[in-house]
Structure formats: C-alpha cells, structure tokens
Amino acid sequence: MAGKARACRARVVAVRRLTPRVLEADLRMEEPPELDFAAGQWVSVPFGPKTVRAYSIASPPTRPRVLTLCADVSPGGLGSRWFAGLAPGAAVGFTGPLGGFVLARADARRPLFVAEEIGIVPVRSILAWLDETGFGRPARLVAWARDPGGLVYDAECRSLARRHPAFVYHAVVASADGPWREAAGGLAEVVGRVASDVGGLVAYVAGGEATIHAVRDLLVAKGLERKSVKWEKFW
C-alpha cells in the first residue's frame, strides 16, 4: 500500500529522449530519501498557486530512491516546455504519490491494459513491477499509436512477452498494414477482438477521454461491470 501524498524534493540525474516526442527523466529523491508509491501512480508538479501538471511514474515501486517520469512534450504547453528543459542537476519539487490507477496484488482477476500513446507510462510502471515480483495471473496489453514512433516502450513490452508466457502484447499502429491496423472502430474495435471473454477480467485504460469512454462502453456492453474498468485520463 502506498504512503500518503506529501511535498517532496528531488534532483534530476538523467534525461533521455525515447522518441522524437517523448522524454524520460530520472529524479533522485532528496526529501524524503525514498518515495513510497504504488505502481501506476503519479506526481503533481506546481507551476503557480493554481497551476499544476501531473506526471505518471514510469518506474516500479521497487526502486523508490530514483523515480523515472515520462512525458510527451510535443503539445508545447507549460508542462511540455518545463519537462523539455530538464537537465541533470536541476531541482524539482512535487507532491505525491497520487492516483488510484493501481493493480492490487490480491486481485485474482486477469488484467487487460489498454494504452493510447503516452498513456503507456503508468502501465509500464505496473508491468515493470510485475516483471520484478511475478505476474501470478495472465495479463494482456493493447498499446495504440498513430505511427510506430508513438509506441513508447514497444521493445521493452516485446521482451516482456517473450520472457513471460502469461503476458501477451498487442501493438496497434493506425498507419500500418496488418491485422491490427486501426479499423472503423479504432482502438475499441481491437480491444473487442482481444477481449472476447470478459469473465474474470479487470481493465486498465489510459489515454484520451474519447478512447476511455469507447473502450469502457464496449467492455460494459460485453458484460463487464462498469466498476471493473479503471482509467487514467491524459487529455
């Protein structure tokens, strides 16, 4: 169980460009020296009295001293400019951990993760945690992107699927040919093909609001309880 949200201080120790649009930043905790969080949670960075931006933690909670944040900086807004300007040595203040997009170890249901582009970040934290601590149940991930460059952590997910037979990874690229090309129903249609049986399923959907609604409505229509669809909205 994660600890309560609190004001924190950290310092940037590394920045990486994962794709032309997406950056990762490693933050070494200073106060507190470790952050007690659950996989899938996020932190809130202040930019003024009433302005904050949320950043999902990409790293697993088994590494509480150095957090990895990941963001799509292509929108070019206040948060994008700040994240793109991060450099080793920079001090960062934030509040965290926050959010309920977390997988309970005691939950025996099969997780279906659905990630739209940068929505993969909290899912990556959960999958990295399961990789290190054991899956314990079958799991699937459907990751969608406009083009191959939008499939952040694609190589990592493919490696995970090779090493863990219980984990199945479906990469969906709208601009590509093949059986998982985006059809008339978009990402929701692909999820419908993958989730042919919703019995014993719990869904985690992260991305844009339209995608969240479409996937949730489809799964509920198939018989999944509405409360069994957890979501994290990025835009």
Order of helices and strands: EEEEEHEEHEHEHEHE
Backbone structural class:
alpha/beta
The Cα radius of gyration reads: 17 Å
The outline comes out as globular
The largest β sheet comes out as: 6 strands, antiparallel
Output the CATH topology of the largest domain: Rossmann fold
Q: Based on the coordinates given, report the CATH architecture of the largest domain.
A: 3-Layer(aba) Sandwich
Explain what you see:
This protein is of the alpha/beta class and 235 residues long. The chain has five helices and eleven strands, in the order βββββαββαβαβαβαβ. Helices cover 23% and strands 34% of the residues. The protein has a six-stranded antiparallel beta sheet. α4 packs parallel to α5 (209-221). The two termini are 27 Å apart.
What key phrases describe this protein's structure?
235 residues, alpha/beta, Elongation Factor Tu (Ef-tu), domain 3, Rossmann fold, 6-stranded antiparallel sheet, 5-stranded parallel sheet, 23% helix, globular
Explain the layout of strands and helices.
Layout: E1 6-17, E2 22-31, E3 42-46, E4 52-56, E5 66-72, H1 78-84, E6 91-98, E7 110-116, H2 120-133, E8 139-145, H3 154-163, E9 167-173, H4 186-194, E10 201-207, H5 209-221, E11 229-233
Parallel strand pairs: 7-8, 7-10, 8-9, 10-11
Antiparallel strand pairs: 1-2, 1-6, 2-5, 3-4, 3-6
Helix pairs in contact: 4-5
